[in-house]
Design goal:
single chain, 73 residues, mainly alpha, 89% helix, 0% strand
Amino acid sequence: MQAFITQAAPDEAESAGALMLTSFQVAISAGAIIGGLLIDHIGSLGVFGFAGIIALAGTILVSLRKVVLAQAA
């Protein structure tokens, strides 16, 4: 991922790297908050259910992207 960012913004590689690091930190913090809320309200089973739903949604999005890219080619 770092190589892609460096290629995408060669003149601003340091700023782009900082932005990537910040987005990772925000994602980690958001995951901790959402996980804590799910455990408080639903229990530990809710966390696994939510993770499964998110994994399924990610799989669908990646599959759709491949289909769209194949149609564009």
